[in-house]
Amino acid sequence: MGSSDSDSDDRTGRSRDAAVDARSLAEALAPCFASLADACLRAHEAVCAIADVAPTTTLTRKRGAGADGKKLTKKQKRELRAPRQPTAFNLFMKAEVVRVRAEKPGLGPKEVFTECAARWKAKKAAMGGTGGSLAGASTPVPVKEKKARKEKSHKKDKKHRDQ
Fold it and tell me: Domain map of the chain by residue range?
C-alpha cells in the first residue's frame, strides 16, 4: 500500500528530517527576528522624535515575548503596561496629604491618611453623597439594573389547573 521508507511522511510527502531541520532553523532564527523587529521599532521611534511626529506603527512584539523571543516575567509585563488613569480619590489624596503635612507637621503617616480620609468623606458628602465624581476625574461606576423575576410555575400547579 504505502512505502516502508522511514524518511517520508505519508501525510505531507516531506521527509521527516526536512521538517526537523525547518523547525530547528525557525527556533534558531526566532530571537534574531525578534531583535530585528525591536530594532526597527526603536529606529522608527527615533526618526519620529527627530521629525517631531508622534510614532505610529503596526509593528508590535509578540504578546508575552521580549526582544530576545523569550517569555517576559510578570514584573517585566507590568513595566511595559501603561499606567491607569488616577481616580478622583487618588488626585484628592495626593493634594490633601501635602496640605495636611503643611498644616500639622508633627503627625505620622497613619494620622495624616486618617485626616485625609475624613476630609475626603466630608467633601464627598458635600458634593452629593456616594458615587459623585469630584472634578470629573473619577472613573464612572457602572450601575446594574435588576432584572424582573419571572413567575415560576411548578408541575404540581399545572396538574391541578388542568383538572
Answer: 16-80, 88-126
